């Protein structure tokens, strides 16, 4: 027993690649030996391999068992060494999976995939943003960057990296250079708006220094601070406090207006805002407007230009960013028709 225990301790400490190689050789060798020693019971290599694998991984199925002295000697060798080696491998695999799970929960990972979405700064707003993103597309990968001890949320397609988002080393762990978009949320824990936007400025500066081409959306607390970001290539700004205040005021003067905004911003029910790529058969905005209207959608904007109704007879540029308001059934019909 002492010898077996020492042997197991040696196996546990052995290099993984050497252990796997040894296991493959052991399985192949015993599969071959049992066929050579007892061909009546094991007529083919497949039968030998089947018996070896069921023996070392389970108690065996009983469909094959050696009856000769030579076959039983091979079986004894397999019982002593094979089961122990395979047991160590299974243990190492389980330990490896557990260690990987712990590293994911602690945010100690390096993300290597591409076209993912990075969310910087965990808050209720970030949580809601993730829900909206997954409602829009289930097939996206999301990486959260924050300094929390453990991942705030962890799913197969949601990953967490712990660290300072203004540190380029942390951003590189999230593979920011090959991300689809980066969403930088303002830190709710800081009470001073200037300090909040100052922290956001540092993060945005770090992002742009190593990934100037990535699409970056930044939340700022005060609109007057946007000018401080001008030297960077930040794509979009969300002024959270002024946006909410403006919505309050507009709703106060016109009842029910908040429901209109809410329906366009949330993908719950009713009509939503959708992007539609320019079709080759559309020459003018009127062509696009009329065809989209026939499918139940209203063309309202080209990028930031909301005055489509005033330029209906103008030619649509090749880089147009067309947006429509419609329900989910209508947008499915549009995508089907335009791609046919």
TrEMBL record:
<keyword id="KW-0472">Membrane</keyword>
<keyword id="KW-0407">Ion channel</keyword>
<feature type="transmembrane region" description="Helical">
    <location>
        <begin position="73"/>
        <end position="94"/>
    </location>
</feature>
<dbReference type="GO" id="GO:0006813">
    <property type="term" value="P:potassium ion transport"/>
</dbReference>
<protein>
    <submittedName>
        <fullName>Voltage-gated potassium channel</fullName>
    </submittedName>
</protein>
<dbReference type="Pfam" id="PF07885">
    <property type="entry name" value="Ion_trans_2"/>
</dbReference>
<dbReference type="InterPro" id="IPR003148">
    <property type="entry name" value="RCK_N"/>
</dbReference>
<dbReference type="InterPro" id="IPR036291">
    <property type="entry name" value="NAD(P)-bd_dom_sf"/>
</dbReference>
<dbReference type="InterPro" id="IPR013099">
    <property type="entry name" value="K_chnl_dom"/>
</dbReference>
<keyword id="KW-0813">Transport</keyword>
<keyword id="KW-0812">Transmembrane</keyword>
<keyword id="KW-0406">Ion transport</keyword>
<dbReference type="InterPro" id="IPR050721">
    <property type="entry name" value="Trk_Ktr_HKT_K-transport"/>
</dbReference>
<dbReference type="GO" id="GO:0005886">
    <property type="term" value="C:plasma membrane"/>
</dbReference>
<feature type="domain" description="RCK N-terminal">
    <location>
        <begin position="114"/>
        <end position="239"/>
    </location>
</feature>
<feature type="transmembrane region" description="Helical">
    <location>
        <begin position="12"/>
        <end position="35"/>
    </location>
</feature>
<dbReference type="GO" id="GO:0034220">
    <property type="term" value="P:monoatomic ion transmembrane transport"/>
</dbReference>
<keyword id="KW-1133">Transmembrane helix</keyword>
<dbReference type="Pfam" id="PF02254">
    <property type="entry name" value="TrkA_N"/>
</dbReference>
